[in-house]
Every structure is written in structure tokens, then in C-alpha cells.
Design a protein that fits this description.
It is a single chain. The protein is mostly helical. The protein has helices at about 10-30, 35-50, 55-65, 80-100, 105-125, 130-140; strands at about 5-10, 75. The protein has one domain (about 5-140). It has six helices and two strands. Strands 1-2 form a two-stranded antiparallel sheet. The longest helix has 23 residues, at about 80-100.
Length: about 160
């Protein structure tokens, strides 16, 4: 096994992203606004492309200044989190497309899947997309090179940094 260098990852920024995804998607469903779900999908896609949490600006200028979330900087790999956001964006795109193409049950079901997985991460500390990333890395799939931090089960939020 090779030694990897972990980076500083602000898990509060990730949580802000997840909380925003949850809130906006619930509002989109309740008010039947697939355009709002499409906005979430676009922000998640842009965040993936820029290698940042999609709603990072809300974290910087809303959650953090108001004291709603405090920085939670841990030694971790950012790549699995980026992959998880990208995977979520793909599900959101498929969900929104399904709604607009006349399959609202499938579409909203996919949106709710993203809500459920974001909630599991935000409130339970388990990132399914990260676990999938690490699982793909075990199969030596190109582009999936990281392993979980030492002593951490794949997908579980790392322990507090020393």
C-alpha cells in the first residue's frame, strides 16, 4: 500500500452544500418547481467542474458569517467528495429531465434520492458517493486513486484532525 498525502478539507463547506441541496430540492418538490431542481443540478455540475462544493458562496457569505456553521477542517481526500457531487449532479439531471419528459414519478424519485443521500451525509456523516469512489479505487479504475484515511471506513467522515 502506498502512502498518500491527505489535504485539508472543510467539512462545514460540504455540509452547507448538502443542506442547501436538501432545502432547495424539497422546495422544488413541494411547490412543483422542476426549474428549481434544474438550478440545483446546474450548480452541482458547475461545482464539480470547478472542483468546489456547488453552493460554496452560500457557505462563505451566509452560513459562516451568521455562525450557522463553523469551519470543520479535517485531513481528508477532496476527490471522493467531488465525485459524490458529480454523481449527485448526474442523478439530478436525470431527475429533472424525467420530470420534463413526462415521467414525474421517476424524476422526483431521483431528486428525492439525492435529498436522502445528502441528508445521510449531512446528518449521519456517511457519504455514499465517497464510498463508491473508494470502491471503484479498489478495482484500480483509472482516475480513482485515493484510499480512505487510515483507520476510517470508506465513506465515513474522518475523525477530528490532531
Amino acid at each position: 500500500m502506498t502512502t498518500q498525502v491527505l489535504q485539508k478539507v472543510d467539512h462545514a463547506a460540504l455540509k452547507a452544500n448538502q443542506l442547501t441541496i436538501i432545502a432547495l430540492n424539497i422546495l422544488a418538490f413541494v411547490f412543483n418547481l422542476p426549474i428549481l431542481a434544474a438550478f440545483v443540478a446546474i450548480v452541482m455540475t458547475l461545482g464539480s467542474a470547478l472542483k468546489l462544493p456547488g453552493f460554496i458562496l452560500l457557505y462563505r457569505y451566509f452560513y459562516k458569517p451568521l455562525g450557522l456553521l463553523k469551519p470543520d477542517i479535517l485531513d481528508d481526500n477532496p476527490e471522493p467528495h467531488r465525485f459524490a457531487q458529480f454523481l449527485g449532479a448526474l442523478f439530478m439531471i436525470a431527475g429533472v429531465a424525467s420530470v420534463y419528459l413526462g415521467a414525474p414519478a421517476l424524476g422526483w424519485g431521483l431528486v428525492w434520492l439525492v435529498v436522502a443521500l445528502a441528508a445521510l451525509n449531512a446528518f449521519g456523516g456517511f457519504c455514499v458517493g465517497c464510498a463508491v469512489y473508494y470502491w471503484l479505487a479498489r478495482f484500480n479504475l483509472p482516475g480513482f486513486t485515493k484510499t480512505p484515511p487510515a483507520g476510517i471506513f470508506p465513506g465515513v467522515k474522518p475523525k477530528v484532525s490532531a
